[in-house]
Design goal:
Chain lengths: ~450, ~375
């Protein structure tokens, strides 16, 4: 069992030299009648209780040093490693170095300061599980394993970040995953060179190279059930220690409009909800542009009654309609951002002040039309129908492109933009998968869990 | 290569001319145009009905402005009117053109041509004849009207009232009927009854340029029954000294032009009506067998009315139903068919068969 340590490689002196300046480095020698051991560990990452219960107390109860050595080796986390780099890494992650006679052992006494399993905050649904992924990868993996009990669920781990040494786990169902995707992902992960990796978004950014892209190509989610659902569809999930989120890829456009509610509700209700979301996206994208087109270029499209209504509501407005729309949309963006940043206790104030007073006062003062206020609210509300935050933000930005096209070119501009947007969507690929395809799986019936 | 093609495509799309940038509140919408004869010979008196939008929607109060200008031609009159308002005149929402009766009795071609030719006027605006003058019709403001000129739009489009006496004619239809061989145009007549009311219950039959004949309200209804399906109206039936009125829930009419080798050419009309009894002058119980009798009597009366209308139209030499077109479409002697038809027309015979089915007496006793 015991392997002779290479004294040339790992020595206590060398390690101590490397860890010079660590105020929390503890170096002790325990002496018993039959022999002595050296203890070396970093206090802040090692758990003192585990140390005293599992390492120190047994030492004084043992009869000789070999029995103690064998006892230490029975722990599953114990390692006997040879290289210098590995030794430092283990110490930094909370292992305890035990010097027994001439050999070294690394005893797992990692101290995990974890946050417990919380409820989902960004992707909450009305019915269904409310557990969110935690910041500890072990708990996350536990949550996934519990929901996906199959031997096909494979996991690869790696460490990314020269300084942060972030643990990354790649999960996939070997029987369903597309090997090309996996190969491409591995290649990208291996070439990744960063110092600090702290957020899922960063990793996502590294994985997709195109810097001008506006649409997200992988889902960043905090819901374990979404991860499991996507694993069953043959996708790859990437989990990062200390983040609380998982990336799912390859993701197509349609995936961003799937909420976990859809499967909980009755099929017709689920489809209706999805339809609502799609209508919502169309509204939030095109409503401002269409308003500008209809008021400034082509009022003949709408009915005469509506035309007169808009004309009447705009009678006092001094600016052209696209300035009016832009002004109100910016106001709305400020409001959304402000209420996000405000502390929870005064959050509602922003909505009251902004929504009620601003809207009311702006129309009363004649700076914007009544219909404009309705429109801006509709745009704001329908934007929040999108279940995933990243897509929601992308759509929020995209609508300005349509607005500017409408302001400068009228209906022709809007049509050109819609055609261009459709072309752009069709042209996109997410890890080799067509981005704009309707469903991720070709034949929905064959694989369970593939129902949208 | 693809990228270049895409780029070229988008550039070409962007070169398309859209409309001009003009804010909606800087436009003033013309909702109806009236064309009357001017004081000078050959001149026009053009009236525009302009809608003035209100800022306060809660206070419903329609505001209308009517501009009138005389000129030897229509375009000139419109240009002159531009300098009488502060906003740009916008004709895109113009929904009706009313021709004064005097104009319609003289020549409608000029006005029709102008309305169809102008690019910013839609081809789906309603043409009508105004009595006594177009201006008077434009000035009518019904009490129930909330949006300027809305009553005219609603009445003529069939969105509002579903009167069996109204038939609307779009400008594209008018043009088509004028230029097409074998069909003659019609136009509804709008009569102004004072300041607050109008009456649309007659149609005028035109040859290709002016009014030839005006149908009575009853004839107008029969005309509508023959020219469109599911006309909702009441029709009379007299049976055993009692007067009944039935409501037509469903109606359809078809005709065939029969040209036997020997004998006269005949147009055979077949009208089917499904009705409900609506009114009876006697309080007696109406049984199922009586319903059948009433239906037969009603059918007879309808046949007589239809036949009278058809012969009247034939006597005038007009063809508002498009029988000639129908004949031409089913004969392949393309060079001569219309001449043949003209020869046949005066000697046409009519057969009318009305199949009335009254299925319900209206009461359960």
């Amino acid at each position: 069992m015991s392997v002779q340590q290479d004294k040339h490689n790992v020595s206590l002196e060398w390690i101590k030299d490397q860890l010079n300046g660590f105020a929390d480095l503890i170096d002790r020698t325990l002496v018993a009648p039959f022999g002595q051991i050296d203890l070396l560990y970093i206090k802040s990452v090692a758990d003192g209780q585990i140390l005293s219960r599992n390492v120190i107390t047994p030492f004084y109860e043992m009869e000789n040093i070999n029995a103690y050595h064998n006892y230490i080796l029975t722990y599953p986390g114990t390692e006997e490693e040879t290289t210098r780099e590995k030794a430092i890494e283990l110490l930094l992650s909370g292992y305890i170095l035990l010097g027994l006679n001439d050999t070294f052992c690394f005893f797992d006494a990692m101290n995990r300061e974890i946050s417990g399993v919380n409820e989902t905050s960004a992707e909450s649904i009305s019915q269904g599980p409310s557990d969110a992924l935690t910041e500890d990868i072990a708990i996350n993996l536990n949550m996934i394993r519990r929901r996906y009990q199959s031997t096909n669920l494979k996991m690869e781990t790696m460490v990314i970040g020269d300084v942060s040494k972030t643990k990354v786990a790649i999960l996939y169902d070997i029987s369903r995953v597309d090997p090309n995707v996996l190969a491409e992902l591995r290649e990208k992960m291996n070439t990744l060179k960063v110092d600090i990796l702290q957020a899922m978004g960063e990793l996502e950014k590294f994985l997709s190279s195109d810097s001008l892209r506006i649409l997200p190509k992988s889902i960043v989610t905090e819901r374990p059930d979404r991860v499991v659902f996507n694993l069953s569809e043959g996708k790859v999930a990437i989990m990062l220690d200390t983040t609380g989120y998982a990336i799912v890829l390859p993701s197509i456009f349609n995936d961003f409009f799937t909420s976990m509610d859809d499967k909980i509700q009755l099929p017709i209700v689920g489809r209706f909800l999805k339809l609502l979301r799609i209508i919502g996206v169309c509204m939030t994208l095109w409503l401002p542009a269409i308003y500008v087109t209809l008021t400034a270029y082509n009022p003949e499209i709408i009915r005469v009654q509506v035309a007169l209504l808009i004309s009447g509501s705009r009678a006092t407005v001094p600016y052209p309609s696209f300035v009016e729309v832009l002004l109100m949309l910016m106001m709305m963006e400020f409001l959304t951002e402000a209420s996000l940043r405000l502390p929870k206790a005064i959050g509602p104030t922003a909505t009251t002040v902004g929504g009620l007073i601003l809207g009311q006062a702006a129309t009363a003062a004649g700076l914007v039309g009544n219909i404009m206020i309705i429109l801006v609210s509709a745009v704001a509300i329908s934007n929040f129908l999108i279940p995933l935050n990243m897509m929601s933000l992308s759509i929020r930005v995209l609508k300005y492109i349509f607005l500017f096209a409408a302001a400068f070119l009228g209906l022709v501009g809007v049509v050109v933009c819609v055609v261009g947007f459709a072309m752009y969507l069709c042209n996109q690929r997410s890890f080799g998968q067509p981005y704009f395809r309707l469903f991720f799986l070709d034949n929905l019936g064959k694989k369970k869990g593939g129902e949208h | 290569m693809r990228r270049v093609l895409g780029g070229i495509g988008i550039t070409l799309l962007l070169l398309l001319s859209g409309c001009d940038f003009k804010e909606i509140d800087l436009r003033i919408f013309v909702l109806a145009i009236g064309v009357d004869q001017g004081a000078e010979e050959g001149g026009f008196k053009i009236s525009l009905k302009l809608a003035i939008p209100q800022g306060d929607v809660t206070k419903i109060d329609e505001k209308v402005q009517i501009l009138t200008e005389e000129s030897p031609n229509i375009s000139e009159a419109l240009r002159r009117m531009k300098s009488r308002v502060e906003k740009e005149l916008d004709y895109s929402h113009c929904k009706s053109i009313v021709l004064g009766e005097a104009v319609a009795r003289k020549d409608i071609l000029h006005v029709m041509d102008w309305a169809v030719r102008r690019r910013d006027m839609q081809l789906i605006l309603n043409f009508a004849i105004g009595r006594p003058e177009a201006l008077q019709v434009l000035q009518v403001r019904p009490e129930s009207e909330r949006i300027p000129s809305n009553s005219l739009i609603l009445a003529m489009s069939g969105q509002g009232t579903e009167s069996p006496f109204i038939s609307s004619v779009y400008s594209f239809q008018l043009m088509r009927n004028i230029y097409e061989k074998g069909i003659d145009p019609i136009l509804p007549i709008i009569e102004a009854k004072g300041e607050k009311e109008f009456l649309i219950n007659k149609i005028a039959l035109l040859n290709n340029e002016k009014i030839k004949m005006v149908l009575t309200p009853n004839e107008t209804r029969i005309y509508n029954l023959l020219s469109r399906p599911n006309l909702r109206t009441n029709l009379p039936a007299h049976s055993e000294g009692v007067m009944y009125q039935y409501y037509t829930e469903r109606s359809s009419s078809h005709y065939k032009i029969l040209t036997p080798e020997h004998g006269k050419a005949t147009i055979r009309y077949h009208i089917k009506i499904k009705g409900i009894l609506e009114e009876s002058s006697s309080p007696d119980l109406v049984t199922h067998s009586m319903l059948e009798k009433i239906a037969v009597a009603g059918g007879k009366e309808l046949e007589a009315d239809v036949l009278a209308l058809l012969t009247k139209i034939q006597a005038s030499g007009l063809d508002p139903f498009g029988w000639g077109l129908h004949y031409g479409a089913r004969h392949f002697n393309n060079d001569t068919e219309m001449e043949v038809w003209e020869g046949l027309y005066a000697g046409l015979d009519f057969q009318v068969k009305a199949e009335v089915n009254i299925k319900y007496s209206g009461l359960i006793q």
